[in-house]
Amino acid sequence: MHVEGISPEEDFLPFEMGYLPDFVLQKAVVELNETSEAKVQDMETLKALIS
């Protein structure tokens, strides 16, 4: 849908979601090994690198 005076990009961007679909969460676990434990460990590693 296009509104007069608004560019097509402004019709739908930025697109924000307050959640991630289940298939995205599953893909993160399978392909990126993104588990709760891995996230905690990686955040600690990042903090150590920054400081």
Report on the structure:
With 51 residues, this protein is an all-alpha fold. The protein has one domain. Helix content is 61%, strand content 0%. The chain is built from three helices and no strands. It is elongated, with a radius of gyration of 18 Å. The model has no long low-confidence stretch (mean pLDDT 84).
Mean pLDDT over the full residue set: 84
What's the end-to-end separation, in Å?
48 Å
What would you call the shape?
elongated
Kindly state the percentage of residues in helix: 55-70%
Order of H and E elements: HHH
Report strand %: under 5%
Low-confidence blocks of residues: none
Figure out the total of helices.
Answer: 3
Radius of gyration: 18 Å
Largest sheet: none
Quantity of strands, as a count: 0
Q: Could you give a quick summary of the protein structure above?
A:
With 51 residues, this protein is mostly helical. It has 3 helices and no strands.
List keywords for this structure.
51 residues, 3 helices, mainly alpha, elongated, 61% helix, 0% strand
SSE blueprint and pairings:
Blueprint: H1 8-12, H2 22-32, H3 36-50
